[in-house]
Amino acid sequence: MQATTPHLIVIFGASGDLTRRKLIPALFNLKRQALLPDNFAVLGVGRTPMDDESFRDDMKAAIASFSNISKAGDKAIIESFISLLHYASIDTFDADSYSILKDKIVDLDKKFKLEDNIIFYLATPPILYDKIPVFLAKQKLNRESHKLIIEKPFGINLESARNLNKDLLKYYSEDQIYRIDHYLGKETVQNILVTRFSNQIFEPLWNRNYIHHVEITSAESIGVEKRGGYYDNSGALRDMVQNHLLQLVGLVAMEPPILADSTNIRNETLKVFKALRHISMDKIRRDVIRGQYLDATINRTKVSAYRNEEGVRPDSKTETFAAMKFYIDNWRWSGVPFYIRTGKRLPIRVSEVVIHFKETPHHLFCNDSGEPNASNQLVIRIQPDEGLLMKFGMKVPGAGFTVQNVNMDFHYSSLSEKEIPEAYERLLLDCMLNDSTLYARGDAVETTWEFINPILELWKNEPEIPLYGYPSGTWGPDVADSLIEEPWLTWRYPCKNLSNDGIYCEL
User: I need a surface site. Which of 109, 186, 189, 352 has the fewest CB within 10 A?
Assistant: First the structure.
């Protein structure tokens, strides 16, 4: 990671949770690592009345709560960083208010010698995504050196995504627009490319000839917490599958790019999205499972059902769990099923990609139960405890050829001399460096919506399609196991309950 040119970062929604928990702590951590330029400033923008000092006090408390403060010298760095923070209180829905913002930006640009390098970060509700860019453009704040970072959701369906892209491109070029997906900023996600394309032992096997199926899981142990009002209009398919999980599919399934740069990598992931086989109506009913968590007792604590959460309709049919089976119609992946699942109130928080290799063509050796040994697996753990795990068979010591599965693993935490950057640290720095590799491109967003949209439409038009309840603390509806058709195969369950008080996770 390298330092960058002078920059001003303007954060809309500066009094919100994302700014306090992620953005300001990430920028502070970049400061600690000497990765911010000498000429740098942050301008928070919001409707909440506040001056520079009160904003600094608030962000100082956020840094104390959410940053990696570990050294005595951090106190001096905090004070130095806090002095770079400024605030402008405007009505973000009022176009005329943006002249006040422009004046503040001009003053900061002169004071800190920022060379007109400005990033506008929209950490706001989506209702402002098609308004703020218009108001900025009217103030001529859309010059070539200005960039726009937009948080998901990028639309709520195909039509809204297309309209949003069309509106943005009226005022900013595609090169200026950075659609942020924090999953792509995770170190292990980026390592998928390195694992595949820098190791000769993997790439020759990464195809239909040797891989039986690919499984991607993103599980959360928490419920919707205080986000019930938002989540009830979103659901797992919109919130996780259309963006995070399909982006992972793109990296896992892409062809080798000519160069490891933004254009070539994003071109290859787009080809994957275009090759996704659209699921027919009949197969949506069979191959896409939706569920909703019920109340349960977890570790002696009672947790509420989704419909009892604050802000959720009592008759809600919003899915908190989604699992699906699909195919990629191209030369490399023809006939290889991909399985993805995501859900809330599952046993643990874990995200991982599992490559299931085919069985050996002839079963010479068996395990201690007399059955053929399990197939090899490569597990790419994204969170928590990032790392890689390879499962393969080894002979049990003693007479005969009894085989037992063993693990060979690597944990990123073992690189003690290296600080693993948080996702927002990497992505903010990349934007300052004009590197959009880990950001979603407009055509890719629309293509993933083209794949997801028919599912949402069918669920909307056929409310009788089952919504399966599952007890909180379990791995979702049992019916999801039926997606994997072979009777001897099921999802990988990385964690086991040791007792009422603990869970053991393998990696």
Answer: 109
